[in-house]
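Supplementary Methods S3. Input chains for the assembly prediction are listed below.
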Amino acid sequence: MIISLLAVTALGVIAWLGAQSGFQILFGAWLPYTALAVFLIGFAWRIMDWARRPVPFRIPTTGGQQKSLPWIKPAPLDNPSDSKGVVIRMLLEVLLFRSLFRNTEVTIENGNRVVYWSSKFLWLFALAFHYCFLVIFIRHFRFFLEPVPFVISALEILDGIMQIGVPRLFMTDALVVLAVLYLLGRRLFNQKVRYISLANDYFPLLLILGLVGSGIMMRYFTKVDVASVKAFVMSLVTLQPNTEILANIGPMFFVHLFFLSVLLMYFPFSKLMHMGGVFMSPTRNLPNDSRAKLHVNPWNPAKEYRTYEEYEDEFRDAMYEAGLPVVKLPEDAEE
Amino acid sequence: MSKLPTPEELISISYNTPVESWMDTKPEIVPGAVAYPAKQETMEGLHMPNPHTWNPFEEDWNLPENWEEIIYNGLKERLEKYRSFKLFMDICVRCGACADKCHYYIGSGDPKNMPVLRAELLRSVYRKDFTTAGKILGKLAGARKLDKEVIKEWFYYFYQCTECRRCSLFCPYGIDTAEVTMMARELLHELGLGLHWIMDPVSNCNRTGNHLGITPHAFKEIVEFLCDDIEEITGVRINPPFNEPGHEVLFITPSGDAFADPGIYTFMGYLMLFEEIGLDYTLSTYASEGGNFGLFTSAKVMKKLNAKMYAEAERLGSKWILGGECGHMWRVINQYMSTMNGPTPACMETPVSPITGTVFHNAAETKMVHITEFTADLIKHDKLRLDPSRNDHLTVTFHDSCNPARAMGLLEEPREVLKAVCNNFYEMPENTIREQTFCCGAGSGLNTDEIMEIRMRGALPRGNALRYVQEKHGVDTLACICAIDRATLPPLADYWAPGVSVYGTHELVANALVMKGEKKRTLDIRQNDLPGMEDE
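Predicted structure tokens for the full assembly:
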């Protein structure tokens, strides 16, 4: 935790100072370009690295009734028997975190009863975090597209529908901070989770906190010249970075951009790859059908087993004696 | 043997975490904490790698000279062969959703029994050797160097996981600790480290066709004894065929059903059912084991032991295989069998019930039907005469085995059967049954007596749920569909819910089954008096 905090703080300071001391082109253009390249290539490489490895067996975790006898109602979402069921199962998993929704917490009550409590906060805040992040990500395309598509403007209107303050408060901004703080707080104050947490669990949370924090600062507090930001980002998009404009943009922008660059570069080499990995999990993305269909293991080794002949050779006399059928009669058998 | 604490002592569990980091704590490997090691000659006989004599309670485990290299290469090979393994090493976010889903964690409070941390034991080594961040940042990135202490820790904790997959149900990415445990056990086997209680059954199964080492003539004798008992109870004489070619169905059940109480009563139930419906079947002494301790050993051994089923079906010309009540047996059949040992022999066909005409499309490839699917179908079509009042002296609940629940989805079939043959049926609480069911505390080859305390800890969630329905509804009968359960649930019940007895589902079927030509039944299958049906 401390190390991650120091690391993220240091990154912020570096960006701040860098922006002040003439490294604008580095922090404003070269780093983001590099980061995007690292992210895209790294992400693709990781996916291909998983994809090239075989899935020898169909091992879905079945969370409901199998499809068997015609009058027994199967559970196609938790125990899919075909690819349609798998697609729906995966959609629910990816879009609604269905497995996490099942979460419970165990306590022992009165010293003799094991009780399972519903425990949905992790699901709620994890979902809130991911969706807010997605909406914020989409909203940012206002800076990358000219003209700004209607969808994005509509999303902004929806997101600010509470009409609080000027500039209008985006609900997702508040929620994403809340959700990250919950996820962080859980790691710090839930003894079990704290015990299993590593530096690379705290680091992405703090980094994202820095990212959204610097964004919020710019929008609501320190203010930047949005028109200049837009012009600069468009110059990045058209691959002609205009460093002149950078003079009008405060250092907070650089901090924001640098956090983003670090996040992009960190992403493919970290647990954040669960974003791609979840789609490839063999316990979720396969139908439970290996009793109905042949599934081939590309490295299936040759069959090696003790044959019936070897078995009978060892036990023939006793088998014959006991009246069990034998393929070959014992030597001293009476014809 | 260490002394078993009382249930009251055992349940006072602290879930507080230690002060020091998990990388700095080491398990205490004392008698009672780990099961006995496999014998050198057993490992040699199976051609397992690096067989040697060792004792877990000694400092030195006599690992092979190049043990680090073996682990490195073993890890590398498995990461290449299994996308699941590589992915599960990479994408865990340590959210902790799995933590208190594990019966061993609930029962012990040991943080390394949290599935996430159990996987980290291996993941940390993977990071050190196979990830850039781990190589550079080391401990900061959650990586650690492999040393002999880590191997001991693996042995301790990967044999405190029953591969039950409950954690994978709750994981947002479906990370399956069973998969990780299997890999870890494979790696330990590469170093010649295995359990006596697993490797001996494997060796027996290879040689005699079943885990218990029952020789063919003994197997026949046992079944004939059971038939004597059936005659005693019902007046009907059954002469089941053994190793006979030319029958439609090959019937395979776990050998535990032919060996000990209460499994034998379940076996009697199968025999009575087949007799009553006139099923054209044969037993086999060569394929006399449905279960597969290879699943707890390695993919290679699992395949080797499973191969006999199709080989025997081919030799005997069976059209399809009917499988008995067994948990991990059905995980193997449902998720591995046809992939490992298919396609099926030419003589085999998609199973069709000869009694009802029902086609088992869900078993079209493997050609193997679960006995409760088969019986539920018979009951649905009204092909059995049942008198459920013969089970009225019992108040029944049902334990879903982990594997049929979470690696198959066989939930309703056994319940349909039970509800047809028992009038008093109650479910345990919903967080402890069906897909959320809890392990018996001793699956995956851990049903050995020297680790009874660990077993009873792992059995706490199931035992507690059982106790609940015992107090609430007067449940005194725990029905199951698994041979290992029939071995592990009686001590669980005696410890956590004294007064509950364990029954196989088909034993209850046998009690209720009205057979053609039977005499007036005054005894149940255990030869206890049936209340209200005594001789006048």
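Chain B has two domains: 7-30+49-193, 202-512. Chain B has a mean pLDDT of 96.
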